[in-house]
Write a structure and sequence with these properties.
- The protein is α/β, with parallel strands linked by helices.
- The longest helix has 24 residues.
- The chain has four domains: 122 residues, 3-Layer(aba) Sandwich (Rossmann fold), CATH 3.40.50.12160; 125 residues, Transcription Regulator spoIIAA (2-Layer Sandwich), CATH 3.30.750; 86 residues, 2-Layer Sandwich (Transcription Regulator spoIIAA), CATH 3.30.750.200; 54 residues, OB fold (Dihydrolipoamide Acetyltransferase, E2P).
């Protein structure tokens, strides 16, 4: 009998990506050969997102697309859409298994043995309306010859922003046990990873055994062979002076933060139930840059929230222009069931939303180019990733700038010094330089 094939596809955030990696290992251990999404397969695991209506629509489209090239494929759906849209997915033709968030990482155990894989007349469902609020452990594994690992430390959010479905799709805040995190970090490092990216929904709210997020970072900093520790998206109210001092104190911590702003207008922020004002956000950015001058700073900006007038948007555009962001993540407001914003009036027309998004995307390109140009002539450290594109090999700096070099040697999973020679809004270009000789000091990022 041929080895059964399985493919996985992830929509949404880095946390989903981290969980997909765990699911993939579970499939391997169950005897499946993993194939790229889009190839003929016996099983598809679709890890979904429900942050926007478009993400849900994409999930349904991908199910139909898979069944076109693999009409007998067993389709298993999990993730946020499986949690919030379970009834809709039950009506979707071709879905065989739906697994909500409470049971997500157990999904491989719900699959039939390979010789019993066949389409079902109705989907089997493993789902609870509420999600456990208890602390948790996770299975983990290390892959050799890898570069960046996503390490889940936290899940859920209790902030209840008026536009956000995450408290419904992932539950309230809970943290992974400290020993479990440290064990996986050590395993990932010995398995070949050079960089660990800490992921979660609201990671700054991490608390376990009386230890907070900064205490966790200090423990991770003690892992001797770990080269880089990167923090994924973090809420502005959880970026403390202690955290900034910690990031500035150790070269292991990447000088990079993604801090969602969402809007540059205080009235809109209040309607969003955000817990910061524009002034507080500006002050935070000033403090961060004073402590970490080479900080790569990204943000989220939501366009078209109900009640966003032309004046409110101009405020957002002005704040985004003024602050030294290295990039902007721009997206339209999407009404989500169960959220407080769904009851708000004064909706923004789709034409206005498109114009506003276009303006912010133009600003994003300008911001990226300005940030990249700062590094022309400087030497930076680059962690090279797998694969090539044409004659170029790509890697990332600690402050999350993509670097392209032309070189014939294998560079994957190596940290090399590169002198930057040119920049576009997409990436910077540079030349590899020889290792420094004794007595030569290179100021690497």
């Amino acid at each position: 009998m041929a080895t059964p094939r399985a493919s996985l596809h992830t929509l949404g955030c880095r946390l989903n990506q981290a969980e997909t990696s765990i699911l993939g290992e579970g499939l391997r251990r169950k005897g499946f050969e993993l194939v790229e999404f889009g190839q003929p397969t016996d099983v598809l695991i679709l890890n979904t997102c429900s942050v926007t209506e478009d993400a849900e629509r994409t999930s349904r489209y991908l199910i139909r697309k898979t069944l076109k090239h693999s009409p007998h494929a067993f389709i298993a759906v999990t993730g946020c859409y499986a949690q919030t849209g379970m009834e809709t997915l039950r009506q979707q033709a071709g879905v065989d298994l739906i697994v909500g968030q409470q049971f997500k990482l157990d999904l491989p155990t719900y699959l039939p043995p390979p010789h019993e894989l066949r389409k079902r007349p109705t989907a089997e469902v493993h789902h609870t309306k509420t999600i456990s609020r208890g602390d948790f452990n996770l299975p983990y594994f290390a892959e050799p010859d890898s570069t960046r690992a996503l390490l889940k430390i936290q899940d859920g959010c209790s902030a209840m922003c008026s536009f956000c479905i995450i408290p419904f799709s992932r539950g309230h805040e809970r943290s992974r046990t400290l020993d479990d995190i440290l064990s996986e970090a050590w395993s990932l490092t010995t398995g070949g990873y050079k960089e660990i990216v800490l992921t979660g929904v609201n990671i700054g709210q991490y608390v376990q055994q009386g230890l907070d997020f900064c205490a966790l970072l200090r423990r991770l900093d003690e892992i001797s062979d770990l080269n880089r520790i990167r923090i994924s998206s973090i809420e502005p109210t959880t970026v403390t002076d202690e955290l900034l001092d910690l990031l500035a104190s150790s070269k292991k911590f990447c000088p990079y933060l993604h801090i969602p702003l969402q809007s540059g207008d205080d009235q809109i922020l209040q309607a969003m139930h955000r817990r910061h004002t524009v002034k507080e956000y500006r002050t935070l950015v000033d403090r961060a840059l004073a402590k970490i001058p080479d900080l790569g700073l990204g943000t989220d900006l939501m366009v078209g929230f109900p009640g966003e007038t032309d004046a409110a948007f101009r405020n957002t555009l002005a704040v985004a222009s003024d602050l030294p962001f290295s990039y902007l993540h721009v997206f339209p407001y999407s009404p989500r069931p169960g959220t407080a914003a769904l009851r708000l009036k004064h909706l923004v027309s789709s034409a206005s939303v498109k114009k506003r998004i276009d303006l912010l995307l133009d600003l994003d390109r300008a911001k990226r180019l300005t940030f990249h140009n700062k590094y022309i002539g400087r030497t930076v450290s680059v962690l090279f990733e797998s694969g090539t594109r044409g004659t170029y090999r790509f890697g990332m700096t600690p402050n999350f700038t993509k670097v392209a070099v032309t070189d014939s040697e294998a560079l994957e999973n190596q940290i090399k010094p590169v002198t930057i020679t040119a920049a576009t809004d997409r990436c910077v270009y540079g030349d590899l330089i020889p290792p420094p000789t004794m007595g030569t000091a290179l100021a690497l990022l």
